[in-house]
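User: Second chain of the day. Same drill as before.
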Amino acid sequence: MEIRKTHTIIEEMRGEAGRPADEPLRKVAVVAVFKNPYAGKYQEDLSALTEASGEIGALVTTMALDAMKPYAVESFGKGGVAGLGGEQQHVSAMLTTVYGNVLRDALGGGKAWISSMTKRAGPGVTIDIPMNHKDALTVRSHYDGMTLTLHDCPHDDEIALICCFANRGQLNHRVGGLAKEDIKGEDGLK
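Assistant: Same format as last time:
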């Protein structure tokens, strides 16, 4: 894929409600913007997009892990936007297991399903990327997300593919549910 640009967004919360965090909550998003080979036309077989997602996934996860330093990743999410000349299915074809496994491999594992969001829009679009704990979808403290505004993308013939990482759950979490300390086994549950 012909990548026009990438950009990295870092958000770090050091406290909330007047309480400093024992560890800041760092959220990182990396966006890769590239030509959509199927913009403006219908293509039945989208497997070329699925295959290409592995290479793009490797790039964005490497960049995201670098931006997360010195923190380890506990949460992840993925998403993307097809330009108006494309289809939402073009982005969905890139967010399959191929892309997800690249994210998991970069983290050294991850048992949970990866939350995602896709849409079709033009430059200036805002997208919310949902995130959850990497090893168990039901860890309530890690239900979170990151809101991104893509100022110069996607053009009509582009796709913006996104990965998001976070180092911890919500600040001041206190509403119960499965805790990360309770994660065990292959399915992420005790």
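The mean pLDDT is 95.

User: Great, on to the next one.
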